[in-house]
Design a protein that fits this description.
The structure holds two protein chains of two kinds.
Chain A (H helix, E strand, L loop, with lengths): L8 H21 L2 H26 L7 H20 L15 H5 L15 H24 L5 H21 L1 H4 L10 E2 L2 E2 L3 H27 L1 H11 L1 H5 L5 H27 L9 H14 L4 H21 L4 H15 L3 H18 L22
Antiparallel strand pairs in A: 1-2
Helix pairs in contact in A: 1-8, 2-8, 2-9, 2-11, 2-12, 2-13, 3-5, 3-11, 5-11, 8-9, 8-11, 9-11, 12-13, 12-14, 12-15
Chain B lengths: L11 E10 L2 E11 L4 E5 L6 H9 L6 E6 L2 E2 L5 H7 L1 E4 L11 H8 L6 H6 L4 H13 L15 H15 L3 E5 L7 H14 L4 E5 L3 H7 L2 E6 L2 E6 L1 H5 L2 H8 L2
Parallel strand pairs in B: 3-8, 3-9, 6-7, 7-8
Antiparallel strand pairs in B: 1-2, 1-4, 4-5, 9-10
The chains are: A mainly alpha, B alpha/beta.
Bound molecules: adenosine-5'-triphosphate and magnesium ion (MG).
Chain lengths: 380, 251
């Protein structure tokens, strides 16, 4: 535990196994449709990764990560929508050259705040900065005043609700309840055909690994240990000379930026963005993915996201009305019985067994390294 | 030049300090002064307001009125972490350490470098840090427990660890709240020895009930009762003060 490198041996093995799964195994064995589903699930893995830092390490439970997922997603979608709304493509509209939903809402000129989204560079910067700054403002307002725990969680829920209402209400500017659909090209490159989906999948996996390495770096820095210390004894950290509020703001901003990158990937890979990924329910679902995977485990959160979503897809196809109950039950079961989720089960039960089998000496629990228990759908 | 009375430079000057919790004055118009390199012990019955005084100095509780000057800085206007950075260290009554971290990591977090967000991200565990952590660990009798999770330590060891966390901060004013409470006899002896070593070159404010311990280390004793000073002076003077005997030492 006292080493200071940003990946230790067992974590490196875990990361390599995850890479093998995402880069080799899944693309080899899944058809494009299924692979695109995985791409969709992985967009939530960015959120889960952010929650590991913010909630798992820092103890700050945000129930409004959908806000940042949405902000990132909408930034990306605005760029794509503008490209899809060229004068040529929209000549049947009464005002050609603006997104279709604006035309339907009798808007006759592109609003000011849409204009910069003609630029991809601006869009990429906005995907990071808009949610980052928004988190900074919320974080500063809350944490400087020492609003903590439950109140913070409730306020993030309120923000998620407000943003959803805003997006739905301002149809002319946002596409309303339907969101932004019919996204077509990225700098002229069609994102809809199968080969594009495969390229986008690999691009997303690349971004995910960049985020994993950033998370690893944070975790193994002194800042990571301060977050853990803070979760446990906030006051002691203050009296060790640290500004607790600043560290909380940082963790919250990192989680927001990760979520936003996930949202942007969603717009690219899935091809639309809508308010149904912004509100209270999706925000809570994202917390559940993290809890199931293990909120203290960077890799665990990713496996948790994948597993819960696979379960969701298969179950909600057969028993759509039961799914939400199943998800709730799963969450309660995990929190009560396995507070460290799948990663905890792995670290406490499976890894020691394997270590004994191979007799390879001390594989200490801690960093969860390894792949999920293959094809085990979570209990419930 | 030297005409009349030259005011003395105190390290800590507490003046007219009052805090009221819903009308109940836990500390009431309290004034006292601590000099450089002085070891001051605060004693008094339960609920006298001793811990509250330390809470006020380190910023945990905000004063209702009055002032606390430390090296000419007004502490009542500073945030907790700024007070620490000004040079005030505080040990809590119940051991307050990070259970989820190892002994090494506990000490390292208290090392006074990289305290900003950026500083913490780029903090390097270099030879100087390791050497200092090991040096302090040696002093607090935990040198061979550096990789142990802090939650696995005994109560006495936790107290030492927290003292170590303060030492590594190297504060000019060290405040200790009942450092030997709950310790076994042998741990007490070791702790007294430890404290005697670490109180050199700094001022110390200690709260303690153990009279033998107080006699051993105190330069001056302040007796608190109901948020006010009952008596102040050398141990001998205080011990023989009839008011003190009546409310505190008598039973
Ligand atoms: N935050 C608070 N709110 C309300 N009352 C408080 C608060 N902190 C302390 N008190 C009250 O102030 C009084 C003084 O408490 P304090 O903890 O300072 O006593 P003490 O001298 O340290 O006692 P002990 O020897 O038991 O540690 C007590 O009556 C306590 O109940
Ligand atoms: Mg006390």
């Amino acid at each position: 535990m006292t080493d200071n490198r940003f990946v230790n041996k067992s974590e490196l093995i875990g990361i390599l196994l995850l890479a093998a799964l995402l880069v080799v195994i899944l693309p080899l064995f899944l058809d494009v449709f299924r692979l695109n589903l995985v791409a969709k699930y992985l967009t939530y893995a960015f959120v889960a990764l952010g929650l590991v830092i913010c909630w798992g390490y820092g103890g700050i439970l945000s129930l409004g990560q959908g806000v940042f997922f949405g902000l990132g997603g909408y930034c990306m979608a605005m760029f794509l929508k503008l490209e899809a709304s060229s004068v040529e493509n929209t000549k049947i509209q009464s005002t050609p050259g603006i997104p279709d939903f604006m035309d339907w809402n009798q808007i006759t000129a592109l609003p000011m705040f849409w204009k910069p989204f003609h630029s991809l560079t601006f869009t990429v910067i906005a995907i990071v900065l808009v949610p980052g700054l928004f988190a900074l403002i919320i974080g500063a307002a809350m944490f400087k005043r020492r609003v903590g725990g439950t109140y913070f969680a409730i306020i993030t829920q309120a923000v998620a609700a407000i943003l959803t209402i805003l997006i739905v209400g301002q149809q002319g500017y946002t596409g309303g309840i339907n969101g932004m659909t019919d996204l077509r090209t990225l700098k002229g490159w069609d994102i809809r055909p199968d080969h594009a989906k495969i390229v986008l999948y690999f691009f997303e996996v690349g971004c995910l690994f960049v985020c994993i390495f950033i998370a690893q770096f944070i975790r193994h820095s002194k800042l990571g240990r301060i977050l853990v210390a803070m979760r446990d004894k906030e006051d002691r950290v203050r009296f060790s000379g640290y500004s607790v509020a600043n560290f909380k703001i940082f963790a919250f901003c990192v989680s927001a930026v990760f979520a936003a990158i996930g949202g942007a990937m969603f717009a690219l890979n899935v091809g639309f963005m809508s308010p149904s990924f912004v509100g209270i329910v999706p925000s809570i679902e994202m917390v559940i993915y993290t809890a199931v995977g293990g909120r203290l485990s960077i890799l665990g959160a990713i496996y948790g996201t994948l597993l819960v979503n696979f379960a969701k897809t298969s179950l909600s196809e057969s028993f759509p009305e039961l799914w939400l109950f199943g998800l709730g039950g799963l969450f309660i079961a995990v929190v009560l019985a396995f507070p460290n989720g799948l990663a905890g089960i792995w670290g406490d039960y499976i890894a020691p067994q394997i270590a004994r089998l191979f007799n390879s000496g001390n594989s200490k629990p801690g960093g969860w390294a390894g792949k999920p228990v293959a094809d085990s759908t979570p209990a419930e | 030049m030297l005409i009349g009375h030259q005011p003395k430079e105190f390290l800590l000057a507490v003046e007219a300090l009052t805090v009221s919790f819903d009308g109940f004055k836990a500390v009431n118009d309290l004034s006292f002064y601590v000099e450089e390199n002085e070891i001051r012990v605060i004693i008094g019955p339960n609920g006298a307001g001793k811990t509250t005084v330390l809470d006020l100095i380190c910023g945990k509780t905000k004063a209702t009125s009055g002032s606390i000057q430390f090296r000419g800085k007004e502490l009542t206007k500073l945030k907790e972490n700024e007070i620490v950075q000004a040079g005030v260290g505080r040990k809590f009554q119940t051991p307050s350490i990070y259970d989820d971290l190892t002994v090494f990591e506990n000490l390292e977090i208290s090392y006074p470098k990289g305290r900003s967000v950026y500083g913490a991200l780029t903090f390097k565990r270099d030879a100087a840090v390791r050497a200092r952590v090991e040096e302090v660990a040696e002093m607090i009798f935990l040198k061979d427990r550096l990789d142990t999770g802090a939650d696995l330590l005994s109560h006495g060891q936790k107290q030492w660890l927290e003292i170590g966390m303060l030492l590594i901060q190297d504060p000019e004013l060290l405040m200790l709240d009942e450092p030997v409470a709950g310790m076994s006899v042998s741990e007490r002896v070791k702790t007294a020895e430890l404290l005697n070593r670490i109180i050199k070159d700094r001022s110390v404010l200690v709260i303690e009930h153990d009279m033998k311990f107080v006699e051993d280390i105190a330069h001056k004793v302040t007796v608190l009762n109901q948020g006010q000073i009952l008596s102040e002076g050398t141990m001998d003077k205080v011990k023989n003060d009839p008011k003190v005997i009546e409310v505190y030492l008598g039973h």
